[in-house]
Structures are given as C-alpha cells and as structure tokens.
Batch of 3 targets.
Target 1
Amino acid sequence: MDIKKGENMFFVGEDEVNPEAEIIFSVDDDGDYVVESTRVDDSLSGEGVGTRLVETMVEFAGQEDRKIDPKCPFTRKVMEDDAEMKKLIKN
C-alpha cells in the first residue's frame, strides 16, 4: 500500500483531491499535530488501511519530535492500544 503525503494529510489513492483513504491533521499553537479525521472507502474496508494511516502519522510526528492530539476517535483508539504510540498522545 502506497501512502502519500499531501497538504496536512496522508492519503491512499491517485491524488489528495479524491483519496481512497485519508488521515487529516492540523497544527496547534504549540506546533503539535491535531488529527481531525480518518476516512477509508468501503472498497478498502477490513484491510487495515486506517491503522496504517495512523501509524504513518505517528511515525511522522515522531520524526518531527511533536505530539499528537487525536480528536478523531479511531486515531485515539489505535494510539491508546499501542504502548509506543500512546507516548505521543498530547495530554
């Protein structure tokens, strides 16, 4: 699966305008990332694409030495269920 970086997002698909799956984020006043939403088309459902998008977001935040405020319930659950990812959740 090829995950690409777009403008304040990571996505799967040909382009960021019509992605097959996406995780959308913004940057807060502290410079940390706020994950607003994660979406996966029904055609990719059950393939772990959403989890892989969260993992990509966590890797990106770690490389940038930033935390993540997961407003998206799916992202929060994935991060809370993994001890390493949980360390990057912004309190």
Note: The longest helix spans residues 49-63.
Target 2
Amino acid sequence: MLPVELLLQIFEHLHDDRPTLLNLLLVSHHFAQLSESILYADVTLHPARICRSRPRRTVLACFAESLSGPTSSVSPSPRRRGPMVKHLFIDGSDIPSIAQSEYSQLDLILTRLPHLQSFHFTHLANAVRWSPFATSRITAPPFQLARLIFNAAIHPSYAPKMVHGFLASQTRLEHLEIGSIIEEALGSANRDGATASADTELPPPIAPSSLRILETSALGYFLDAGKTSNLTHLKLSSSASPLDMMLINSASAPRSPLANLRVLSTSQTPHLPSSESGGSPSATAATLLPNLEYWELRSEWVDLAAFLQEPCVRRFLVSLPRLKALRFSADVAVHSREGVAQTFESVLGLEFIEVRLGRKREVIIRYYRGEEKPRRVQWRRGEGAEWCQTWEHDASAT
C-alpha cells in the first residue's frame, strides 16, 4: 500500500472527475476516506432545490443530514465529513426568495464546518433577512475564513449583525467582497443612534487587518477602521468619491493608507485636481498610490482614443509612477492606434492596454508596447473576477 500522502496526491488529480471519486468510495474504507476528503472539499448548494434521492427534502436539508446522519458501513463517520469542507458556495441566483427554513438549515450546516476557508453566498433578488450566525442558538462561528463573498442585498435589520457580529469575528480574512452591506449597517446604526441616548456609543468600525483583496462600495468605512495598509487589490463597486477625496487631500498625509495597493478597479476615473487648482497632480496621486501597477476601468467608451485624450484620464495615468497596465472590462471600440501610441508615450512604464472588443464581447485583446498587432487574451479565471487575480500569470496572450 502506498503512503497516504502519495495516494492523496494521486486522488487530487481526480478533483473534477466526480464519477471516479464516487466509485472509489466503494473500494475500501481507506479509499472512501481519501475520496470524501476531495468530494467534500468544495461544496455548492442551491436553496429550494429538491434532493433527488429524497423528493420531499431540499438540497440544504439533505446535506445537513449527511453531516450528522447514521454511519455507513463503507463511508467515514458523518461527523468527519464537516471538517473536510473547505469551500462552500450557496447559489440562490435563480430563485426570487429564500425561505426562512432554508436559512435554518444553512445555520445548521455552518456550525458543522470547523475548517471552512471560503464562503460564497449569492442571491440576486430581494433583500435577504439573514446573516451568518445571527440566530440566537448559534453563539460563535467555529471557523476562520480566509475568503468571504456575500453577493446579496441584505435587510437593514440584519446588516449590523453581519458587520459587527460575523465579520468582526473573522480575524484571518484576506479576501472580502461585501458590496453595500457595510453602508446599510452604518445607515442602520446611525438611525438607531439618532433615537438613542447621548451615552450610547455606536459600535466602532470593524475590519480585519489581514485584508489583502477587497470589493466594497464603502471604502470610507475601511479607511476609518485603519485596516487598509495591507490591501493589494481594491474594487470600488460604486463611485470613487472616497478615493477622490483622498487624492485631493493626500499630499499632506505622512503615509498613504493605500501604499501597498497594486490593483485598482473603478467604475469611473478617479478625480485629480488640475494644475490650475493648485498643487501637483502627479505628486498627489503618487503620494496616495505609490505602488499601483494595474488599473481596471469598468465603464463603457465608444472610442478608446477619445477616452485616452480626456484630461482627467491623462492626469491620472501620468501621475502613477509604477503603472504597468490599463484594462477595460466593458465594451470599447478601437478605431485607430493613435490614442494607444500616445498613451504609451505619456506613461513610460506602461506595458500593455487590455480591451474587450465592442462587437464581440467574448474577445479580449492586449496592445503591448512596441508591437504592431494586438494579442488575443484568455483569462484562466471566471469573467468578472479578473481584477483580483495575478494579471501576469492568470492570463495568456497569443
């Protein structure tokens, strides 16, 4: 018999071959343990869907039972399945609402996943009346997440529980995509505070200092918490007004709270004051974003050359001392290379400009400095998540 370490490495190559892993469950108790450790590592559950094996139960209910049900003669104990789960994705994108009974099942599941590293929750319809560990019967989370994506609108009464309860307890969090939940929590706290007594103190801003990747519409919240110094990737999911204020006022700051930022994704061009308004735009942005290497712009433009000639855009591009790449994630038309060539001349360190062609949205090309023809690009990750990847290694250009 090969050592367990070697067998596990072999089984890892079957990560995407679920039929083979299921067959290995029947070989022996030893093989069943190794197979389940891979089968249960990544779990995707759809609320409200009916379990095939038990037509009267939902998928969430069946999975909860699998973590605590009777022991099979072949499979490992159900109590050992929970610790195997490393990544959990709750996909409610295709249903209008999620029943409260489903949230109860999800709470039950979460309490049995002590080694969970990544939690992704998606619901694109009405605001959800739930947040992790907001129920009274759950006192504390049993895991320390490294990645949390909460892609859903949340009811204002639950937002504070999410921010000041669950989020505050995740001290090892490195990757956070939380959208407008923090804004909703702050708004709820302000409304409650307006009617509270003068002696009542609002909860202080909470954010783990381990954060490296952040998507939010409430940048000011994290700045107030003073936990942005380690950020390397930032996506602003709404306007860039907090960043604009930092750009305008950063010249007098001793050290930028975004000094380590390497990737920035915005829906509009950050505003820099013109030279006529006083101060040096180059010095201002260089003080705030001294190490920014990659900028993604998500707004659509009819013509790339016209965009690159916009004064606000040129001021921002020229002001970034380490900028290597500019990326458009929305449709862009390229009528001539004139604007591209002028941008390379203005931004000396720029290595490539990446655009998504307007007529064929699936086509992404890069214009590299010194090359006549653009290269077609294939990203290795899912669409929309390119901003938080490694731009050099997670995309291939041919």
Note: Confidence is low (pLDDT under 50) at residues 71-75, 193-200.
Target 3
Amino acid sequence: MKFTQFLTCFPLLASTAISAWNDFHLHPVLAPSYDTAKLANIVPSTNVTLDYSLDKLADPRSCVSIRLQTYEPVVLLEAIGSVLQVACTDSTVTIDFSTPAAFERAISEWLHDGEFWLITNHMGNCDAAGERGIYLVVGLNWDNDATAVTAETVKMGFGSIASSIAVTFSDVQGSLSNNSGNITFDEPGINVASNFSLPTDDDIFSDPPYFTATANNGYLSDAAVIRGQFSYDVPTQQLQSLWFDIDTAFYGDLAVTFNVTAPFSNNRYTFSPGTFFASTVNVPGAFSLQPALRWSVGADVGTDGAIHHSSNITMSIPDGHAHIDFMNSSNSRIVGWGPRLTSAVQTDEAATGHASPFIDFSIELALDVLDGVFNTTGGITATPQFINELSVAQSQTRIRKANRMIWPRNITCSNGFELRSAFNFSVDAYVTNQWEKTLYNTEIPIADECYPF
C-alpha cells in the first residue's frame, strides 16, 4: 500500500470505546460485460454475471461480482435495453418490450413451455430495493398487440438456480494515513477500520494481592482493505477455492506500569475491549461476508521478587499485505509488515524476572454461503511484544516464558541489575478448526543495560 498524508481529526475516545466507519450497502449494477444494445442478451444462457456495487456508481474497483453456472438457462432482464418495464404478481412476471424486434427475438428464443429463469433487478414490484428477484418460468403468454409477454413463474433462490457460484470481492488498492496515529482509508471497496483508547490510570489486569498492571496511556488504530474470491459447487456442497488479500496498517501506543510485590510464577494476562463487527457484505440468499476487528492487550509476567517497572512502546505497521488461502495454508504468504517503533523503560524496583507487554491485532473474516449451507472463519493476527527481562546479580532463579524470552546473563553486571529489552513481532494466519501458520517473525534487540543498586 502506498501511504500519503491525509488530514483528519478524531476526538480522544472514551475508555475502551471504539470508533469506526464500516457501512456496506450493496446496489445491483449491470456487469460491464453486458452491452444492453445487443439483442443477443435475450437468448437464455447458463452463464450469468451479477454485479453489486458498494456505492451508487458501477465502479469495478468497488464491486462484488457473482458468476453463476445454472442448471437451466437464464435471462437477465437488466441486460436487455429494449425491456420497457417489468411488473410482477405472486405468480407472474410481465415484460413489456419497446421494439417489435426485441419482442420477436424473445418469441423465437424463449421456450414456450417455460423451463428457464428470469432475473429481475428492482423493476416494478418484483423484488426489494437493493436486491434481485429469481423466477422459474413454467409458462408464457404472448400479447402481440402490446409487444409484451406474461410469464407464469415461481419465485426461487440462488440455491435452486445455481450449480456453481463464484464470487469476487472488489479489487481495491491504496490507503491514506496521517501522522497523528489515526489510520483511515479513502478508497472505494471493502474497507474496515477502528480506533479506540484504553482506560487511563486503570488496572487492566491483575493477580491479587501481589500484582497489578496499570495502563498509563493506550491508543490503538487499525484499517484494512479486503479483496478476495471464492467458488462453490452446489450439488456436492464443496468449496472449490477461497482466498483473501488483505492490505492493512495499524498503530499502537501503549504505556503500562507493572507493580509486583511478591514472587510468583510466569503468567500470561490479557485485557480485551471486545470485537468490532463491520456491517456484513451480503447478497441475500447467495452469501454473506462478516469482517471483524479484534484487539487485545496483554503481558507475560513472572518474578522471584518485587518489581516496579514501566514500559512504553509506540509502534506502527504502515504497509502490511497478506494473502490467505483458506484451502491450502502453504499458499498463504505476506509481504511488507516492517515495524516502526520507539520505546522507553523505567525500573524503580528490580528482581530477577520479566514484564513483557504485547498487543494482539486480528482481522477475521466469516463467510457464509447459501444461507448456512457452508460457512468458515479465518484471518490474520499480528502480535508485537516488548520483551523486558530483569536479572539481579545475586539471584540464581530464572523465571521465564517458555518461548520468546531472553536468557539472563549477568556476566558483566555484577553489582546491580541487568535490563535486556527486545521487540518481537509475529504475524500468524489461521482458519478456525483447520490450520494455523506463522507467516512472519522477527526479533529486534533494543537495549542491554546494567543499572547499579
């Protein structure tokens, strides 16, 4: 993603409040592959493309495109420029043509005993706003004087018409960010974003009576553009392909004070303000895609004595790209994700141990096909962790997390305590109950200092 300066203003959010702009309203639009002037569009076909725009314009960058392979031939009425009007009842669809040529072509091409499909696009009273109607034709009555035909019909759904369904989500690239830490996107497409602050001077997690962690400051912001594709075979109820490209950026500013008054073994603590669900990208009866943004703040803490330690880290990922193949984890990959960070620590009381805060940021996508016939959930999780290990020269106890911790050395720091800090960053992809894979991991040394008693 290419980032440029974009001036915007967001007020400081209330404790654990979430701010976001993620409303998706799909509008049926004619796919650009159709030329409404061509009478050939009157001919029923077993291949049909249905586009839906995320805005009122038929911008291909913001479209969701559904390609259907159908059991029986289909006529897409919106693709016929000479259709003057369409009216529906519970059991009929009446079509008025504006030219005798179109009327005659329909007579010659449409089977008189029916057994094909009509798809309407909010014409007359045939379907709800923002939706299309699907009708099985079981008979036809022609009116030569009015150049109109009345089809005897049965209203059906996507699961009845399609032998296979393939959906492509918008092909959108680009984003905008400003230098205040707020991240937003200003491009058409499936964009999701949120900002929220942690409670100030509140205990975000604790282990009474010996341990508390207080958030002195905490602000988190994230944004993503989502593109993707899936194909599904209806008779076998088998997914043929499913992948998503996720372009993302996030910003975190976290300051935590750890106050430990007695020894205790390593524990992993987590505070979560909840999950933000953007509005669903939904074509009723065909599919729904539910994006979710999840944040959590936590720490790995363990010590053989009292610790009073403060950590502050400001971190941004301005340019992260992920390709997540739900069907094959080996095809999943990422590029970018270079972290930018500043950090500071202060230790007023030390014992051998560690106090290592982390942030988990996840983009999760839940897909439902044909009203629950098939569903799956997956996504990516990015975890930056500020690793802080304290080692007192006189102590022989080593209390550490099983992984991502630094071994105490105490080689040159013989009259004080050693503070070793590093930044660990990992990106994991997953499909719930299927697989999980680490796509990226890096550890950046920050400090190795000796502080005299």
Note: Confidence is low (pLDDT under 50) at residues 1-21, 172-182, 396-408.
